[in-house]
Amino acid sequence: MAKKKIIVSKRELQKFVRQNKPTRFIAGYFNVSERTIYRRIKEYGLKGIRQKGRKRFVRKPKPSVRKREWIPTKEHIDKLNKTYHFHNINYPRSRYINPQTLVCSNQKRNPRGSFTTVGIYWIAFMSDIYFIYRIGLRYSGKPVSFKEIYNWTFENSYDMTVTLMENTDIYVEDIIGFTLYDASQGKPENFGRS
């Protein structure tokens, strides 16, 4: 008895090769061995069959994550001074500031601990003159985490400052920094001048 020839149509095989399907999938579809699929591809002269093994994994480059940048506070304020030409500069006493988050700290990291009060440094405009002012706002009677007080301050500081200056001739231009402290422990050295 002669062996029955397995029919693998050229059209369907060509379709799977174009789709870059693995030989194991094609063999399963036609219910034949992978070796038979390779023989038929060679017979039909098809090109572009996927190589044995797994599909090559193309590693996408990781997006560059910008590091939190801490720069000296004086340098940051002096850069702003070149734009605004301040009449009066009230520097935060903190050594560093993060220009993205506007947090002031004496170390190149967010301050650690719990806080009750925040000092907001902002650019004031009055009578064609720019100033840097600071206001202190009490967030809570009990100390809270940095994340909680910072998120609240970042979201609401501009609106609160505008509301405080509503009945004056002072226009709030922009918020330029935050200092945090625990009022129950007294005003720290790095809070700034009143």
Strand order of the largest sheet: 1-2-3
Overall radius of gyration: 34 Å
The average pLDDT is 83
In percent, how much strand structure appears in the residues? Answer: 15-25%
- The SSE order reads HHHEHEEEEEEHE
Helix content: 25-40%
Count of β-strands: 8
Which structural class should the secondary elements be placed in? alpha+beta
Determine the N-to-C terminus distance.
106 Å
Backbone shape: rod-shaped
Regarding quaternary structure, what we see is single chain
Number of domains: 2
Major sheet summary line: 3 strands, antiparallel
Low-confidence stretches: 189-194
The total of helices stands at: 5
Short description:
This protein has 194 residues and is α+β, with helices and mostly antiparallel strands. 30% of the residues lie in helices and 21% in strands. Strands 1-2-3 form a three-stranded antiparallel beta sheet.
Describe this structure as you would to a colleague.
This protein has 194 residues and is an alpha+beta fold. It folds into two domains: 52 residues, no CATH class; 121 residues, no CATH class. It is 30% helix and 21% strand. It has a three-stranded antiparallel beta sheet with strand order 1-2-3. A hairpin with a 6-residue loop joins strand 2 and strand 3. The longest helix is centred in the last third of the chain and has 19 residues.
